[in-house]
Specification:
4-stranded antiparallel beta sheet; Rossmann fold; 11-stranded mixed beta sheet; 2 domains; elongated; 28 strands; single chain; alpha+beta
């Protein structure tokens, strides 16, 4: 099975004079590679299958070729000893600035920037009525749901302007510069385009400024294909193969010399991509197109450092299945979506700056797989429970008032339109006690008896929230309200203050962690099943700890919109009496 998506894959190579490459010492090489697979709910940006494969494959070949690589994907944390950063807009800009604005770059140095994910195009209207198309790359936190023109775009939309990136590359002091962009280019203002991603109907992207080269994945009015058997976009697959050495050993017009030039890359990728698509997709055409200026003598990569073996055709790794409502065999109660969490061992707790004695690091093993709610339980899902006919204890849920998202109206529960938080069914349910959250889980089990629904243990919660990370947060060691919904006036790990929204946001507004879970940092605190014990870590079992056998308070995890960033760390422990119904406390469901 193959997947065809209109893609604009742009290889923009800016090769300025390095003097004669055969006589000059090779300079340093830097690469920033970004892969964005999933976007915030409510955006006209569907999940893409292969950006992370493309990013990881390109990073691997470039590292072997001598590049100092910075990798940014949604699989954040440390991978084989290398830090992977979240592909959020501010992070991408910071890393771009760190590389491109480096005053110590020299004429013999090479810089490569690669962006894989969605792109959007809007028209910029001038005062005289003329309109110019503008192209933007979409980081993971992009917000384009209500945009209609480029004139409306602000920093809040978290978009990366290709024109601005062109300018930054032009001003970079490195002699060789390469920009690689793999992005679905759609116009969300036109009906149907967001679904069909019919980028072939849009005007071609502008060429980069003088002294540059641009390598597009396809020509005008064509599509760029992704192929499941390859596990990559067809263009990207052949780019990676070329850089692994095939462009040097398979180019008939030249003798293999251990170096890949832009001309050799272009020749190999253009021919291989065209032939692959024509044969596999019944005469379809995808002809990569090279534009701009470059110097033939400058090598992109020295393949003598790489063992020249053919690139494997990997099988697509099976992702953790999400529980889509109505799909047989997967959890589906209340229309919730779930992610399968596999067993594993991790270091629970932390030595974060300011960490308390109650969170000392210790080894914990989660021995069995379970399913975790992809999002915090929403108001809409809670209303389904409240109106299902079950008996609702008056102490479980706050009825109306300033903050509760729900209220009783006659015999039914409805949205509380008087709430200071608004009244969206997509906001997280809050103002619910621990017993109320447990009752919701028991109702879910009644609705879907194939599974047992419950609150997570404290150990399960930290395990799935970390998602393999060892830092204070899933993406790193700092938070100021830009990455998650917390009080940005009191940041952690940075002196830069960020936004304080003073309200809950719709679930999934911010980027997920590496395992696809949203809002494990901030928005609302999440109830855990455990009683709280300050000294419990010292005596808890390594395997599947369940918490103390008794207590007076239940565990809360994750921080909230109301709290400082310190409280939203993956290891931070909070606790309250189980009868508390507070507008900063919600919950997430797990099942097995």
């Amino acid at each position: 099975m193959s997947i065809g998506r209109p893609v604009i894959v742009v290889m923009l190579a800016l090769w300025l004079t390095l003097v004669t490459s055969t006589l000059q010492a090779e300079g340093k090489r830097y690469a920033l590679i970004v892969g964005v697979k999933t976007y915030r709910p409510g955006q006209p940006l569907p999940e893409l299958p292969f950006p992370e494969n493309d990013a990881n494959g390109l990073a691997e070949v470039l590292e072997k070729g001598g590049y100092d690589v910075t990798l940014m994907t949604q699989t954040v944390g440390r991978t084989e000893g290398k830090e992977v950063f979240a592909p959020l807009s501010d992070y991408i800009r910071d890393h771009l600035s760190a590389i491109l604005d480096n005053p110590f770059l020299k004429e013999e140095d090479v810089v490569l920037v690669a962006l894989a994910g969605h792109g959007v195009q809007y028209e910029l209207a001038a005062e005289n009525g003329s309109k110019t198309p503008k192209f933007y790359f979409c980081p993971a936190d992009a917000d384009v749901a209500r945009l209609k023109t480029a004139n409306e775009i602000t920093d809040r939309n978290r978009l990366l302007d290709l024109g601005e990136l062109y300018t930054a590359l032009k001003n970079c002091k490195a002699g060789g510069k390469l920009l690689l962009v793999d992005a679905c280019r759609n116009d969300p203002t036109k009906p149907g385009v967001a679904r069909s991603l019919a980028s072939a109907t849009l005007p071609p992207l502008p060429p980069p400024p003088g002294g540059t080269a641009a390598f597009f994945s396809c020509s005008a009015h064509q599509q760029a294909f992704e192929d499941k058997d390859l596990g990559h976009g067809v263009f990207f697959h052949h780019v990676i193969e070329a850089l692994r050495g095939d462009a040097d050993t398979s180019t008939a017009k030249r003798t293999a010399d251990g170096q890949i030039t832009l001309a050799e890359l272009s020749e190999f990728v253009s021919a291989s991509t065209y032939d692959f698509v024509r044969k596999k997709y019944q005469g379809a055409k995808q002809a990569p197109e090279l534009k701009g200026e470059f110097r033939l003598s400058i090598p992109l990569i020295t393949v003598a450092r790489i063992t020249p073996v053919p690139m494997p055709r990997p099988s697509i790794p099976t992702p953790s299945p999400s529980g889509t409502p109505g799909v047989a065999g997967l959890p589906k109660a209340a229309g919730m979506e779930f992610v399968r969490i596999e067993p594993g061992t991790f270091m629970m707790g932390s030595r974060d700056e300011g960490a308390g004695d109650n969170e000392k690091p210790h080894r914990v093993t989660i021995s069995k797989p379970f399913y975790a709610g992809k999002y915090e339980v929403t108001v809409g899902q809670a209303l389904a429970w409240l109106n299902s006919g079950v008996t609702i204890d008056a102490e479980w849920v706050t009825d109306g008032g300033e903050y509760s998202p729900v209220k009783q109206s006659g015999s039914r529960w409805v949205l509380n339109t008087s709430s200071k938080f608004g009244s969206s069914p997509e906001q997280p349910m809050q103002s619910i006690s621990w017993d109320g959250a447990v009752a919701f889980c028991e109702w879910c089990t009644q609705q879907d008896a194939k599974f047992t629904y419950r609150l997570p243990t404290e150990a399960e919660w930290e395990y799935m929230a970390r998602a393999g990370s060892t830092t204070a947060y899933p993406w790193g060691d700092s938070l100021n309200g830009r990455e998650a919904n917390v009080d940005g006036n009191a940041p952690y790990g940075t002196n830069t203050k960020g936004p304080y929204l003073n309200v809950t946001t719709k679930v999934g507004t911010y980027a997920p962690n590496a395992w696809g879970l949203y809002d494990t940092v901030g928005n609302v605190y999440e109830w855990c099943s455990d009683w709280y014990g300050a000294d419990y870590y010292a005596s808890s079992p390594e395997r599947d700890p369940q918490g103390p056998s008794s207590g007076s308070s239940r565990v809360l995890r994750g921080g909230s919109w109301l709290n400082v960033a310190f409280n939203a760390r993956s290891a931070n422990r909070n606790y309250v009496t189980p009868d508390l119904r507070h507008h900063s406390i919600g919950f997430r469901v797990v099942c097995e």
